[in-house]
Amino acid sequence: MQPEEIVPTPQPLSRSAAERLAGALKAVADPTRLQLLSMISGSASGEACVCDLTAPLGLTQPTVSHHLKILVDAGLLTREKRGKWAWYAIVPERLDALRGLIP
User: Fold this and answer.
1) Is 43 exposed, middle or buried (0-12, 13-18, 19+ CB in 10 A)?
2) Nearest to 93 by CA among 81, 79, 76
3) Which helix (H) or strand (E) holds 47?
């Protein structure tokens, strides 16, 4: 007879943690935003400019910028202004937290 495996029970989420997680899940619950995360994550430099993202998505700059703002507001991307362009990069720990939800 083998001893039972003890699996630790995760602690319930606090209200603020649940709200942050819900905001991130809501942000990624859109195909365009998932594509943006994938494109930025897969870029050679680990970052991308709006000007690099419009053509592959077939969307206008204002539309892409809107989606990127939602991802920044959810804490999944950072935004750095360089000249007239904004550059976006993944926030690895936030994306890892979402990946951890999928077994």
Assistant:
1) middle
2) 76
3) strand 47-49
The mean per-residue pLDDT over the stretch 69-80 comes to 95
Phi, psi for residue 75 in degrees, rounded to 5: 80, 15
- Gyration radius from the chain CA atoms: 17
Segment 2-37, tens digit of pLDDT: 545 555 557 787 888 888 888 888 999 999 999 999
Question: How many residues appear in the chain?
Answer: 103
Listing DSSP states for 69-96 in one string gives: HHHHHTTSEEEEEETTEEEEEE-HHHHH
Report the alpha-carbon distance of residue 70 to residue 1 in Å, rounded. 53
Token pair of 57 as six digits: 């998505």
What is the C-alpha end-to-end distance of the chain, expressed in Å?
28
Are 32 and 57 in contact by the 8 Å Cβ rule? The answer is: yes
